[in-house]
Design goal:
Blueprint (H helix, E strand, L loop, with lengths): L1 E4 L4 E7 L4 E7 L15 H17 L17 H11 L5
Antiparallel strand pairs: 1-2, 2-3
């Protein structure tokens, strides 16, 4: 589970490193997010994206992931996203 934050958006990808294939992805600009929600790169939106990411992973049979947050520190948006994904049943 690779997480990327920009100034305006949040992106989450589930990547199989052995095959080099992206298995699933969710972001604030994806079609899974309704335009009425107006998600941005903040903690509230990160929580919603975390829930959507966990649901996407579980739908594809992914239950256990390695959390790659890049250089981002584990607080604020990153923590909100991770906590929401864990609450939905994703293990990491």
């Amino acid at each position: 589970m690779s997480v990327c934050f920009t100034n305006k958006n949040i992106h989450v990808q589930f990547i199989d490193d052995t095959a080099g294939v992206t298995l699933g992805a969710v972001s604030t600009v994806s079609k899974a997010v309704s335009r009425a929600e107006k998600l941005a790169a903040n903690a509230v939106s990160a929580r919603k994206i975390g829930e959507l990411a966990a649901q996407t992973a579980l739908d594809k049979g992914i239950k256990r992931v390695v959390f790659d947050r890049g250089r981002a520190r584990y607080h604020g948006k990153v923590k909100a996203l991770a906590d929401a994904a864990r609450e939905k049943g994703l293990q990491f």
